[in-house]
Amino acid sequence: MEGDALRPTGGAPASNDDTLLPQTTCKLVMTPAHDALSRSRFALYRLLMTPPQGVVSPKAYFAASNELVVLTLIVCWIVTVCYDRSQVWDHPARVYVGHFNPCFGWDYAPASYIAVFAMSYDVHLAWTYASLEAMRTKLRDDDGKTSKAERFSLVTTYLHGLASMGWMLLWLVGPPDGQWAAHLAIFSTAVAFRYLCQLGNYVECRWGKAWESGHVKRSHTVYIVSYGLVSLCLPILYFIDVIMYEAQGRTGVDPPIPLAIIQTLDV
Predict the structure, then answer these.
(1) 117 C-beta neighbours (distance < 10 Å), count
(2) Considering its fold, how many domains does the chain have in total?
(3) Sorted alphabetically, which keywords does the UniProt record give (predicted)?
(4) How far apart are CA 121 and CA 109, in angstroms?
(5) End-to-end CA gap in the chain
(6) What is the pTM of this model?
(7) Residue 100 falls within a domain, yes or no?
(8) If phi over 0 gives left and psi between -120 and 50 gives alpha, with beta otherwise, what is residue 246?
């Protein structure tokens, strides 16, 4: 839904003075170099291996963040299974949920060392995305006013940056001290903020003053609604599992909610 790239053209000269931003005329430009770069399959690879271009694509940083999480999970699972698969099979949180949560593979050392190291770069990606999104919104503001849709997009974009920082607490709360309820609360907050970031972008594209307004497709709406339902239901089901398990005095791997339900949402 986002514009592919942004470069100021024409109008007033570039300046760090925000008062000049409303007078700056901007349009989206696809250069040959950027067009070739955009054909690369993975955003994370493009950002790491390609020299900075004159045209910047904010969504590349968000995509790279998603790719980094998936890549880190894959590497951590391989390390954990090879080093000590009981860390997954006998994971303390498995008694609550029954299934194998994707995060089980990176909760304990040595995989956790890799996870923390990799996720520190995710903080950079998240805040770079946030700053570029904010910059783009201001550059395209031709009347000096920020609409409610744009304001919502800006706030939720910065929440994504905060979520990436809070995400780092997942290795400090839960695995080392058994505080799984607090661990789940941190996880749920990060998931919610990440969803709100995408929702904010959707709202800006649908009701903001950006050029994308009116260009939102039905598939975008289906995606944002589906993603929202999963982001809402998954943490709730997790909390129900934990609360009911302890309240009913269950022992062993005995989740109150059928494990297939949460496993499906997790995937």
Answers:
(1) 10
(2) 1
(3) Membrane, Transmembrane, Transmembrane helix
(4) 19
(5) 24
(6) 0.78
(7) yes
(8) alpha
Per-residue pLDDT averaged across 11-33, rounded?
A: 41
Residue at 266: amino acid letter:
D
Return the closest-CA partner of residue 189 out of 160, 220, 214, 158: 160
| Any domain includes 128 | yes
Domain housing 223: 57-266
Among candidate residues 232, 126, 242, 231, the one with its CA nearest the CA of residue 184? 242
Q: Is residue 194 situated within a structural domain? A: yes
Q: Does pLDDT of 10 surpass 60? A: no
CA Rg value for the chain? 21
- pLDDT one-digit tens code per residue, 204-226: 888 876 555 567 888 999 999 99
The residue type at 25 = T
Q: Mean pLDDT over residues 17-46, rounded?
A: 53
One-letter identity of residue 24: T
Give, to the nearest 10 degrees, the angle between helix 58-84 and helix 111-139: 170
* Cβ atoms within 10 Å, residue 236: 10
Helix (H) / strand (E) containing 166: helix 148-166
pLDDT greater than 70 at residue 255: yes
Element (H, E) at 8: strand 7-8
| Distance of alpha carbon 175 from the chain centroid | 22
28: in domain? no
Q: Which of 74-83, 171-180, 256-265 has the lowest mean pLDDT?
A: 256-265
Our separate counts of H helices and E strands in the chain read: 10, 2
Nearest to 167 by CA among 188, 138, 152: 188
